[in-house]
Design brief:
about 20% strand; about 35% helix; 4-stranded antiparallel β-sheet; 3-stranded antiparallel β-sheet; elongated
């Protein structure tokens, strides 16, 4: 072989990764990190959403019981009580009794425009809204009086 002969390709290539391969790996790591950070939710928001869903279920259960038994029933939020209760159902003789405590003790509620939420016995109860708070988070439970209570955002639309 002469002095100008070409060396085999396998000898010229040294070990390691190309720049393109490294850029692809860095891009994949960046995308995975972004997805993971977006998937993490504020724990207070999750707790408050759970409280709102639970309260909506309790209110609908009490509303159905009030209609079935023909008794006037209402739900009242309570300020801090010695026994730890945060709300009560008045007028129902539920057996077993409905819960009276929040899942998180720092949750609070306010009925907007009234002292209590009327649950029955009439099937049409009127438009009602409840504002729930946990730390700096806020959610609203609302009904138009015909449909069930549902979690809504600040503009009043159901989520």
């Amino acid at each position: 072989m002469g002095p100008f002969s070409l060396a085999p390709v396998s000898r010229l290539r040294s070990g390691g990764f190309t720049l393109i391969e490294l850029l692809v790996v860095v891009a994949l790591i960046a995308i995975a990190t972004a997805v993971a950070s977006l998937a993490l939710r504020d724990p207070a928001a999750s707790k408050l959403e759970h409280e709102a869903t639970r309260l909506a279920s309790l209110l609908e259960s009490a509303r159905a019981e009030a209609r079935a038994s023909g008794v006037a029933a209402r739900w009242e939020p309570l300020s801090e009580q010695a026994d730890g209760s945060g709300f009560r159902f008045v007028g129902l003789a539920a057996n077993p009794p409905l819960p009276t405590r929040w899942l998180d003790a720092s949750t609070s509620a306010q009925v907007i425009g009234a002292r209590a939420v009327v649950l029955g016995p009439e099937p049409l109860i009127g438009e009602q809204r409840i504002l729930l708070r946990l730390d700096d988070q806020r959610l609203t439970l609302a009904t138009d009086g015909i449909g069930p209570f549902a979690v809504s955002n600040d503009s009043g639309t159901a989520r």
